[in-house]
Amino acid sequence: MPRSVNAVASRARRKKVMKQAKGYFGRRKNVWTVAKNAVEKAMLYAYRDRRNKKRNFRALWITRINAGARQHGMSYSQFMGKVKANGIELNRKVLADLAMNHPDAFKAIVEQVK
Hints:
Layout: H1 7-20, H2 32-71, H3 76-85, H4 92-101, H5 103-113
Helix pairs in contact: 1-2, 2-4, 4-5
């Protein structure tokens, strides 16, 4: 009985990976084994960094809120504690945007919680 190999599917699978490796430097873009490893590693980095991006943005928002709050004589933790106690339901993303781009609105929030 002849050996059965599904060359069509194998070729399609390889073409998909090689297409993903377009734009890579050197042999990473056109040698199958090198490209396969490069794409696999890239996918791992992409998966990891989709989660890290959320952490990085939260840290950035906290830094911006802290800077804005300190201009009005409060620390970040005092400010956020009073925001929660007063029932202001603005998240860190919105508060950071106000602190950065709309200082008057942010000042009004600070005065309200003081």
